[in-house]
Specification:
433 residues; alpha+beta; Arc Repressor Mutant, subunit A; Jelly Rolls; six-stranded antiparallel β-sheet; four-stranded antiparallel β-sheet; 34% strand; globular
Protein backbone atom coordinates (compact mmCIF):
# COMPACT_ATOMS: atom_id res chain seq x y z
CA UNK A 1 0.00 0.00 0.00
CA UNK A 2 1.42 3.40 -1.05
CA UNK A 3 1.07 6.61 0.98
CA UNK A 4 0.96 10.07 -0.62
CA UNK A 5 0.42 13.51 0.91
CA UNK A 6 -2.82 15.31 0.11
CA UNK A 7 -2.64 18.88 -1.28
CA UNK A 8 -2.08 21.41 1.49
CA UNK A 9 -1.50 18.70 4.08
CA UNK A 10 1.49 16.74 5.32
CA UNK A 11 -0.73 13.85 6.39
CA UNK A 12 -0.19 10.91 4.01
CA UNK A 13 -3.18 9.29 2.38
CA UNK A 14 -2.99 5.55 1.82
CA UNK A 15 -3.37 4.56 -1.83
CA UNK A 16 -4.49 0.97 -2.18
CA UNK A 17 -3.23 -0.97 -5.20
CA UNK A 18 -5.85 -2.32 -7.56
CA UNK A 19 -6.27 -6.05 -7.99
CA UNK A 20 -5.36 -5.76 -11.68
CA UNK A 21 -2.09 -4.00 -10.82
CA UNK A 22 -1.00 -6.68 -8.37
CA UNK A 23 -2.10 -9.47 -10.71
CA UNK A 24 -0.17 -8.01 -13.65
CA UNK A 25 2.95 -7.36 -11.59
CA UNK A 26 3.19 -10.61 -9.62
CA UNK A 27 1.35 -13.47 -11.36
CA UNK A 28 4.16 -14.64 -13.67
CA UNK A 29 6.94 -14.54 -11.08
CA UNK A 30 4.76 -16.28 -8.48
CA UNK A 31 4.02 -19.11 -10.93
CA UNK A 32 7.76 -19.40 -11.54
CA UNK A 33 8.47 -19.65 -7.81
CA UNK A 34 5.89 -22.39 -7.26
CA UNK A 35 7.09 -24.32 -10.31
CA UNK A 36 10.72 -24.02 -9.17
CA UNK A 37 9.79 -25.57 -5.84
CA UNK A 38 7.24 -28.23 -6.83
CA UNK A 39 8.27 -28.89 -10.44
CA UNK A 40 4.88 -28.95 -12.22
CA UNK A 41 4.01 -25.93 -14.40
CA UNK A 42 0.28 -26.63 -14.66
CA UNK A 43 -0.05 -27.18 -10.90
CA UNK A 44 1.78 -23.89 -10.35
CA UNK A 45 -0.71 -22.04 -12.59
CA UNK A 46 -3.64 -23.71 -10.81
CA UNK A 47 -2.63 -22.82 -7.26
CA UNK A 48 -1.60 -19.26 -8.15
CA UNK A 49 -4.92 -18.67 -9.92
CA UNK A 50 -6.76 -20.02 -6.88
CA UNK A 51 -4.74 -17.76 -4.56
CA UNK A 52 -5.54 -14.69 -6.66
CA UNK A 53 -9.21 -15.67 -6.74
CA UNK A 54 -9.30 -15.88 -2.94
CA UNK A 55 -7.69 -12.45 -2.79
CA UNK A 56 -10.17 -11.01 -5.31
CA UNK A 57 -13.29 -11.98 -3.34
CA UNK A 58 -11.96 -10.16 -0.28
CA UNK A 59 -9.87 -7.48 -2.00
CA UNK A 60 -11.27 -4.67 0.19
CA UNK A 61 -9.45 -6.31 3.10
CA UNK A 62 -6.37 -7.68 1.32
CA UNK A 63 -5.60 -4.39 -0.44
CA UNK A 64 -5.30 -2.67 2.94
CA UNK A 65 -2.35 -4.87 3.91
CA UNK A 66 1.16 -3.46 3.71
CA UNK A 67 2.05 -6.11 1.11
CA UNK A 68 -1.00 -7.76 -0.49
CA UNK A 69 1.30 -9.84 -2.71
CA UNK A 70 2.87 -11.45 0.36
CA UNK A 71 -0.58 -12.68 1.46
CA UNK A 72 -1.26 -14.09 -2.01
CA UNK A 73 2.16 -15.77 -2.08
CA UNK A 74 1.55 -17.40 1.31
CA UNK A 75 -1.87 -18.73 0.20
CA UNK A 76 -0.38 -20.09 -3.03
CA UNK A 77 2.42 -21.89 -1.17
CA UNK A 78 -0.06 -23.41 1.30
CA UNK A 79 -2.29 -24.57 -1.55
CA UNK A 80 0.71 -26.08 -3.34
CA UNK A 81 1.79 -27.98 -0.21
CA UNK A 82 -1.74 -29.29 0.31
CA UNK A 83 -2.02 -30.40 -3.33
CA UNK A 84 1.36 -32.13 -3.19
CA UNK A 85 0.36 -34.10 -0.08
CA UNK A 86 -2.92 -35.22 -1.64
CA UNK A 87 -1.19 -36.27 -4.84
CA UNK A 88 1.35 -38.24 -2.83
CA UNK A 89 -1.48 -40.04 -1.01
CA UNK A 90 -3.06 -41.21 -4.24
CA UNK A 91 0.39 -42.03 -5.70
CA UNK A 92 -0.54 -41.01 -9.19
CA UNK A 93 -3.72 -43.11 -9.41
CA UNK A 94 -6.06 -40.14 -9.25
CA UNK A 95 -6.04 -38.94 -12.83
CA UNK A 96 -6.55 -35.23 -13.30
CA UNK A 97 -7.94 -33.64 -16.51
CA UNK A 98 -5.58 -31.02 -17.94
CA UNK A 99 -6.59 -28.30 -20.32
CA UNK A 100 -4.70 -28.08 -23.61
CA UNK A 101 -2.32 -25.15 -23.65
CA UNK A 102 -1.05 -23.28 -26.71
CA UNK A 103 2.13 -24.66 -28.18
CA UNK A 104 5.23 -22.88 -26.97
CA UNK A 105 8.94 -23.45 -26.93
CA UNK A 106 10.02 -25.73 -24.11
CA UNK A 107 12.41 -24.63 -21.39
CA UNK A 108 16.08 -24.44 -22.30
CA UNK A 109 18.59 -27.00 -21.05
CA UNK A 110 19.93 -24.63 -18.37
CA UNK A 111 16.46 -24.16 -16.90
CA UNK A 112 15.75 -27.90 -16.99
CA UNK A 113 19.05 -28.59 -15.24
CA UNK A 114 18.31 -25.95 -12.62
CA UNK A 115 14.81 -27.28 -11.88
CA UNK A 116 16.19 -30.80 -11.56
CA UNK A 117 18.88 -29.59 -9.14
CA UNK A 118 16.35 -27.66 -7.07
CA UNK A 119 14.16 -30.74 -6.92
CA UNK A 120 16.96 -32.67 -5.19
CA UNK A 121 17.24 -30.18 -2.33
CA UNK A 122 15.39 -30.77 0.96
CA UNK A 123 12.06 -28.92 0.96
CA UNK A 124 13.12 -26.31 3.53
CA UNK A 125 16.37 -25.54 1.68
CA UNK A 126 14.48 -25.26 -1.64
CA UNK A 127 11.89 -22.88 -0.18
CA UNK A 128 14.62 -20.67 1.27
CA UNK A 129 16.57 -20.57 -2.02
CA UNK A 130 13.49 -19.74 -4.12
CA UNK A 131 12.10 -17.09 -1.75
CA UNK A 132 15.41 -15.37 -0.98
CA UNK A 133 17.12 -15.35 -4.37
CA UNK A 134 14.13 -15.25 -6.71
CA UNK A 135 11.68 -13.14 -4.69
CA UNK A 136 14.20 -11.11 -2.64
CA UNK A 137 12.40 -12.07 0.57
CA UNK A 138 14.64 -11.08 3.51
CA UNK A 139 16.10 -13.79 5.73
CA UNK A 140 14.18 -12.45 8.72
CA UNK A 141 10.85 -12.70 6.87
CA UNK A 142 11.56 -16.28 5.78
CA UNK A 143 12.45 -17.16 9.38
CA UNK A 144 9.17 -15.68 10.63
CA UNK A 145 7.22 -17.56 7.94
CA UNK A 146 8.88 -20.89 8.76
CA UNK A 147 8.81 -20.36 12.54
CA UNK A 148 12.58 -20.77 12.93
CA UNK A 149 15.55 -18.59 13.88
CA UNK A 150 17.34 -16.48 11.28
CA UNK A 151 20.42 -18.64 11.82
CA UNK A 152 18.45 -21.67 10.68
CA UNK A 153 17.47 -19.94 7.42
CA UNK A 154 21.09 -18.87 6.87
CA UNK A 155 22.12 -22.49 7.35
CA UNK A 156 19.49 -23.63 4.79
CA UNK A 157 20.74 -21.06 2.27
CA UNK A 158 24.36 -22.05 2.80
CA UNK A 159 23.63 -25.76 2.37
CA UNK A 160 21.36 -25.11 -0.60
CA UNK A 161 24.01 -23.04 -2.38
CA UNK A 162 26.64 -25.69 -1.69
CA UNK A 163 24.44 -28.48 -3.03
CA UNK A 164 23.51 -26.52 -6.16
CA UNK A 165 27.13 -25.54 -6.78
CA UNK A 166 28.17 -29.18 -6.52
CA UNK A 167 25.48 -30.19 -9.01
CA UNK A 168 25.78 -27.35 -11.48
CA UNK A 169 29.57 -26.78 -11.21
CA UNK A 170 31.23 -23.50 -10.30
CA UNK A 171 28.59 -21.05 -11.55
CA UNK A 172 24.84 -21.62 -11.66
CA UNK A 173 22.20 -19.25 -12.90
CA UNK A 174 18.73 -18.80 -11.51
CA UNK A 175 16.58 -17.33 -14.29
CA UNK A 176 12.86 -17.06 -13.52
CA UNK A 177 10.40 -14.45 -14.82
CA UNK A 178 13.19 -12.22 -16.06
CA UNK A 179 15.01 -12.14 -12.71
CA UNK A 180 18.53 -13.57 -12.89
CA UNK A 181 20.73 -14.15 -9.87
CA UNK A 182 24.26 -15.45 -10.41
CA UNK A 183 25.69 -17.22 -7.40
CA UNK A 184 29.34 -18.20 -7.16
CA UNK A 185 31.07 -20.24 -4.47
CA UNK A 186 33.15 -17.93 -2.30
CA UNK A 187 36.55 -19.38 -3.15
CA UNK A 188 38.21 -16.01 -2.63
CA UNK A 189 36.95 -15.68 0.93
CA UNK A 190 38.67 -17.12 3.95
CA UNK A 191 37.55 -20.66 4.78
CA UNK A 192 35.25 -20.96 7.80
CA UNK A 193 36.89 -21.61 11.11
CA UNK A 194 36.54 -25.27 11.97
CA UNK A 195 34.63 -25.93 15.20
CA UNK A 196 36.61 -27.01 18.18
CA UNK A 197 36.86 -30.79 18.58
CA UNK A 198 34.58 -30.69 21.60
CA UNK A 199 31.78 -28.89 19.75
CA UNK A 200 29.53 -30.95 17.41
CA UNK A 201 28.80 -29.73 13.90
CA UNK A 202 25.36 -28.26 13.18
CA UNK A 203 24.36 -31.41 11.27
CA UNK A 204 25.43 -33.71 14.10
CA UNK A 205 23.73 -31.54 16.71
CA UNK A 206 20.53 -31.44 14.64
CA UNK A 207 20.46 -35.24 14.38
CA UNK A 208 21.02 -35.58 18.12
CA UNK A 209 18.22 -33.13 18.91
CA UNK A 210 15.78 -34.77 16.48
CA UNK A 211 16.45 -38.23 17.90
CA UNK A 212 16.12 -37.01 21.50
CA UNK A 213 12.73 -35.32 21.15
CA UNK A 214 11.32 -37.87 18.67
CA UNK A 215 11.23 -35.97 15.36
CA UNK A 216 11.60 -38.68 12.71
CA UNK A 217 11.52 -36.47 9.60
CA UNK A 218 13.39 -33.15 9.56
CA UNK A 219 11.32 -31.97 6.59
CA UNK A 220 7.96 -32.76 8.23
CA UNK A 221 8.38 -31.89 11.89
CA UNK A 222 4.66 -31.88 12.72
CA UNK A 223 3.97 -30.01 15.95
CA UNK A 224 7.67 -29.87 16.77
CA UNK A 225 10.44 -27.60 15.66
CA UNK A 226 14.23 -27.51 15.40
CA UNK A 227 16.12 -24.21 15.29
CA UNK A 228 19.78 -23.45 14.65
CA UNK A 229 20.63 -20.57 16.99
CA UNK A 230 23.61 -18.36 16.26
CA UNK A 231 25.28 -16.24 18.95
CA UNK A 232 23.36 -12.98 19.13
CA UNK A 233 20.09 -14.34 17.74
CA UNK A 234 17.06 -12.80 19.42
CA UNK A 235 13.66 -14.07 20.44
CA UNK A 236 11.29 -15.44 17.81
CA UNK A 237 7.65 -16.47 18.02
CA UNK A 238 5.49 -18.96 16.16
CA UNK A 239 2.37 -20.97 17.05
CA UNK A 240 1.09 -24.53 17.13
CA UNK A 241 -2.45 -25.87 16.73
CA UNK A 242 -3.05 -28.17 19.70
CA UNK A 243 -6.17 -30.30 20.01
CA UNK A 244 -7.66 -30.31 23.49
CA UNK A 245 -5.88 -32.37 26.15
CA UNK A 246 -2.69 -32.77 28.17
CA UNK A 247 0.67 -32.65 26.43
CA UNK A 248 4.22 -33.48 27.38
CA UNK A 249 6.52 -31.10 25.52
CA UNK A 250 10.00 -32.59 25.09
CA UNK A 251 12.84 -30.06 24.77
CA UNK A 252 16.59 -30.36 24.29
CA UNK A 253 19.46 -28.05 23.35
CA UNK A 254 22.90 -29.05 22.05
CA UNK A 255 25.55 -26.35 22.28
CA UNK A 256 26.54 -23.68 24.78
CA UNK A 257 24.20 -21.33 26.62
CA UNK A 258 20.49 -21.69 27.35
CA UNK A 259 17.04 -21.29 25.82
CA UNK A 260 13.90 -19.89 27.42
CA UNK A 261 10.93 -21.74 25.91
CA UNK A 262 7.29 -20.68 26.32
CA UNK A 263 4.18 -22.40 24.98
CA UNK A 264 0.88 -20.85 26.02
CA UNK A 265 1.17 -20.04 29.72
CA UNK A 266 3.80 -22.71 30.41
CA UNK A 267 7.52 -21.89 30.35
CA UNK A 268 10.86 -23.54 31.06
CA UNK A 269 14.56 -22.78 30.73
CA UNK A 270 16.63 -25.37 28.88
CA UNK A 271 20.38 -25.52 29.45
CA UNK A 272 22.39 -26.31 26.33
CA UNK A 273 25.02 -29.04 26.61
CA UNK A 274 27.73 -30.17 24.22
CA UNK A 275 28.53 -33.56 25.69
CA UNK A 276 25.12 -34.81 26.83
CA UNK A 277 21.66 -34.76 25.26
CA UNK A 278 19.42 -34.11 28.24
CA UNK A 279 15.67 -34.03 27.54
CA UNK A 280 13.49 -31.73 29.64
CA UNK A 281 9.71 -32.32 29.68
CA UNK A 282 7.20 -29.50 30.16
CA UNK A 283 3.54 -30.41 30.90
CA UNK A 284 0.96 -28.33 29.03
CA UNK A 285 -2.84 -28.46 29.06
CA UNK A 286 -4.98 -27.24 26.14
CA UNK A 287 -8.73 -26.66 26.63
CA UNK A 288 -11.26 -28.54 24.49
CA UNK A 289 -11.81 -28.58 21.60
CA UNK A 290 -8.35 -27.10 21.02
CA UNK A 291 -6.42 -23.85 20.79
CA UNK A 292 -3.76 -22.05 18.79
CA UNK A 293 -0.89 -21.91 21.28
CA UNK A 294 1.80 -19.21 20.90
CA UNK A 295 5.36 -20.55 21.07
CA UNK A 296 8.28 -18.27 21.98
CA UNK A 297 11.96 -19.22 21.87
CA UNK A 298 14.43 -16.85 23.56
CA UNK A 299 18.02 -18.03 23.03
CA UNK A 300 21.09 -16.97 24.97
CA UNK A 301 23.88 -18.67 23.05
CA UNK A 302 27.35 -18.30 24.51
CA UNK A 303 30.66 -19.01 22.82
CA UNK A 304 31.30 -18.66 19.10
CA UNK A 305 29.41 -21.70 17.75
CA UNK A 306 25.73 -22.17 16.94
CA UNK A 307 23.47 -24.12 19.26
CA UNK A 308 20.60 -26.36 18.10
CA UNK A 309 17.31 -26.38 20.02
CA UNK A 310 14.36 -28.67 19.43
CA UNK A 311 10.94 -29.38 20.92
CA UNK A 312 7.98 -31.68 20.30
CA UNK A 313 4.55 -31.60 22.04
CA UNK A 314 3.02 -35.07 22.42
CA UNK A 315 -0.61 -35.60 23.42
CA UNK A 316 -0.93 -38.12 26.23
CA UNK A 317 -2.35 -41.51 25.33
CA UNK A 318 -5.60 -41.24 27.28
CA UNK A 319 -6.38 -37.89 25.66
CA UNK A 320 -5.61 -39.34 22.22
CA UNK A 321 -8.15 -42.08 22.94
CA UNK A 322 -10.67 -39.49 24.14
CA UNK A 323 -10.34 -37.47 20.92
CA UNK A 324 -10.58 -40.63 18.80
CA UNK A 325 -13.82 -41.51 20.62
CA UNK A 326 -15.12 -37.99 19.90
CA UNK A 327 -14.49 -38.50 16.18
CA UNK A 328 -16.16 -41.91 16.26
CA UNK A 329 -19.20 -40.47 18.06
CA UNK A 330 -19.85 -38.23 15.02
CA UNK A 331 -20.52 -41.28 12.80
CA UNK A 332 -23.37 -43.83 12.54
CA UNK A 333 -23.14 -46.65 15.07
CA UNK A 334 -24.82 -49.30 12.90
CA UNK A 335 -21.99 -49.97 10.45
CA UNK A 336 -20.28 -53.27 9.73
CA UNK A 337 -16.94 -52.10 11.10
CA UNK A 338 -15.42 -49.02 12.71
CA UNK A 339 -11.92 -47.73 13.41
CA UNK A 340 -10.48 -44.58 14.96
CA UNK A 341 -6.94 -43.21 15.17
CA UNK A 342 -4.88 -40.18 16.12
CA UNK A 343 -3.47 -38.59 12.98
CA UNK A 344 0.24 -38.04 13.47
CA UNK A 345 2.78 -38.28 10.65
CA UNK A 346 1.27 -40.49 7.96
CA UNK A 347 -2.30 -41.58 7.37
CA UNK A 348 -4.72 -43.73 9.31
CA UNK A 349 -4.92 -46.80 7.10
CA UNK A 350 -7.13 -49.85 7.43
CA UNK A 351 -7.94 -52.86 5.25
CA UNK A 352 -11.40 -54.36 5.71
CA UNK A 353 -12.19 -58.01 4.96
CA UNK A 354 -15.51 -57.59 3.17
CA UNK A 355 -17.16 -59.22 0.18
CA UNK A 356 -17.84 -57.46 -3.14
CA UNK A 357 -20.75 -55.02 -3.10
CA UNK A 358 -21.67 -51.38 -2.74
CA UNK A 359 -20.44 -49.72 0.45
CA UNK A 360 -20.79 -46.34 2.11
CA UNK A 361 -17.69 -45.24 3.98
CA UNK A 362 -18.23 -42.57 6.63
CA UNK A 363 -15.33 -40.49 7.96
CA UNK A 364 -15.01 -37.78 10.61
CA UNK A 365 -12.19 -35.58 11.84
CA UNK A 366 -11.86 -33.56 15.05
CA UNK A 367 -9.17 -30.96 15.63
CA UNK A 368 -7.47 -28.71 13.11
CA UNK A 369 -6.98 -28.81 9.35
CA UNK A 370 -8.46 -31.15 6.75
CA UNK A 371 -8.13 -34.87 6.11
CA UNK A 372 -8.63 -36.70 2.82
CA UNK A 373 -10.53 -39.98 2.80
CA UNK A 374 -9.15 -42.34 0.12
CA UNK A 375 -11.09 -45.54 -0.58
CA UNK A 376 -10.09 -48.32 -2.97
CA UNK A 377 -9.71 -52.00 -3.65
CA UNK A 378 -7.30 -53.59 -1.16
CA UNK A 379 -4.05 -54.85 -2.67
CA UNK A 380 -0.96 -56.60 -1.38
CA UNK A 381 0.93 -53.29 -1.56
CA UNK A 382 0.50 -50.02 0.32
CA UNK A 383 -1.56 -48.35 -2.43
CA UNK A 384 -5.22 -49.26 -3.06
CA UNK A 385 -6.46 -49.93 -6.59
CA UNK A 386 -9.21 -47.84 -8.22
CA UNK A 387 -9.09 -45.16 -5.51
CA UNK A 388 -11.73 -42.50 -4.93
CA UNK A 389 -11.43 -39.66 -2.45
CA UNK A 390 -13.30 -36.95 -0.58
CA UNK A 391 -12.12 -34.17 1.73
CA UNK A 392 -13.12 -34.21 5.41
CA UNK A 393 -12.62 -30.81 7.13
CA UNK A 394 -11.90 -31.33 10.81
CA UNK A 395 -14.99 -30.67 12.90
CA UNK A 396 -17.14 -32.21 10.16
CA UNK A 397 -17.94 -35.59 8.64
CA UNK A 398 -18.23 -36.85 5.07
CA UNK A 399 -19.13 -40.07 3.27
CA UNK A 400 -18.25 -41.81 0.02
CA UNK A 401 -20.10 -44.58 -1.80
CA UNK A 402 -17.86 -47.20 -3.38
CA UNK A 403 -18.55 -50.19 -5.66
CA UNK A 404 -16.22 -53.00 -4.58
CA UNK A 405 -15.72 -55.53 -7.37
CA UNK A 406 -13.51 -58.00 -5.45
CA UNK A 407 -13.10 -58.95 -1.81
CA UNK A 408 -11.12 -56.55 0.34
CA UNK A 409 -11.66 -52.82 0.95
CA UNK A 410 -8.86 -50.34 1.70
CA UNK A 411 -9.34 -46.97 3.43
CA UNK A 412 -6.92 -44.18 4.27
CA UNK A 413 -7.55 -40.94 6.14
CA UNK A 414 -4.63 -38.69 5.22
CA UNK A 415 -4.15 -35.47 7.26
CA UNK A 416 -2.92 -32.31 5.60
CA UNK A 417 -0.03 -30.32 7.07
CA UNK A 418 -2.27 -28.44 9.51
CA UNK A 419 -4.05 -31.60 10.70
CA UNK A 420 -0.87 -33.65 11.23
CA UNK A 421 -0.44 -34.14 14.96
CA UNK A 422 -3.44 -31.88 15.65
CA UNK A 423 -6.43 -34.10 14.85
CA UNK A 424 -8.10 -37.44 15.39
CA UNK A 425 -10.16 -39.35 12.85
CA UNK A 426 -12.62 -42.21 12.57
CA UNK A 427 -14.04 -44.39 9.79
CA UNK A 428 -17.22 -46.46 9.72
CA UNK A 429 -17.99 -48.89 6.86
CA UNK A 430 -21.63 -49.70 6.02
CA UNK A 431 -22.94 -51.97 3.26
CA UNK A 432 -25.58 -50.50 0.95
CA UNK A 433 -26.20 -53.52 -1.28
Amino acid sequence: MTAIASPGSETPIAVRPSFDEVYAARYTELVAQIQSHFGDRQDAHDVVQEAFYRALVRWDTISSYDDPAAWIRRVAWNLAVSRWRKARTALGFLHRQRRVEPQSDGPGPDRVTLLAALGKLPAAHRRAIVLHYLEDVPVAEIAAREGVATGTVKSWLHRGRAALAATLAVVFVLAVAGLIAVLRPQHDSAPPVAPSPSHPSVDDATERVAAAVGIDDLEEQGLGGIAVLDPGDGRFTTSRNLIGGRYDVKMVCVGEGSVRFTIGAAAASVVCDIAQTTVLTLPVRTPDPGAIMPVTVTPQVTGSEAAVFGYLPELREDDRTRQQDAALAMLPDDGLSAESFFMGNGSGSEDWTVEPGRYRIHAACVGFGTATLVVGQATTGATPARPESVEVPCGQKASLDYDLTAAGLSTQLEPDEEATGSSAGAIVVSKIS
